[in-house]
Amino acid sequence: MTSERTYHHGDLRRAVLTAALDVIEADGPDALSLRDLARRAGVSHAAPAHHFKDRTGLLTAVAAEGYALFADALADAPDLRERGVAYVRFAARHPAHFQVMFRPELYRPDDAALLTAKARATEALQAGVGDLPDAARGEDARLAGVAAWSLAHGFATLLLSGNLEDPVGGRDPGEVFRVLAGLLFDSPTNPGSS
Questions:
Q1: 128-154 pLDDT tens trace
Q2: Which of 20, 52, 111, 147 registers the highest number of CB atoms within 10 A of its CB?
Q3: What is the pTM of this model?
Q4: What is the rounded CA–CA span in Å between residue 124 and residue 141?
């Protein structure tokens, strides 16, 4: 009756993605194996290939889903600082997606779903920089965007790698990031900036 289980699994694509996210969160993307994921999902070893073709296809799906979730997380942030908070909270809530999204060597960068989701996320990030006053952006808004991205991404990466356990403790990482951004940008020479 193994074939019955294989064909009546339900949402096999979602089951394999969920199993992949669990593996990535625990052991990193390099630990992924379609055969292991099939075993975890309780299907034949060939079943995941019907949805993802290969490991790269699966990681492409993880990255596309991650960028779509990321764009949604950034959508309601009213300003650049709050986009940074949303960025950090996204990484904390979706560590497996985050690990894959920023490693383009793992996935197919020309995948249509990935490109669409990535463009939405990029637009949401860039909107925060566009809201800055000209004096805060300087002559090159792209560099202001890189600075903001570096701060949020660096904090998120340090958080996920366990390097901020002592300073963050049991506090909400987004709140800690908000305080950090305030320390850096709300100075006597730059009062009330955000």
A1: 777 666 655 556 777 877 888 899 999
A2: 20
A3: 0.85
A4: 15
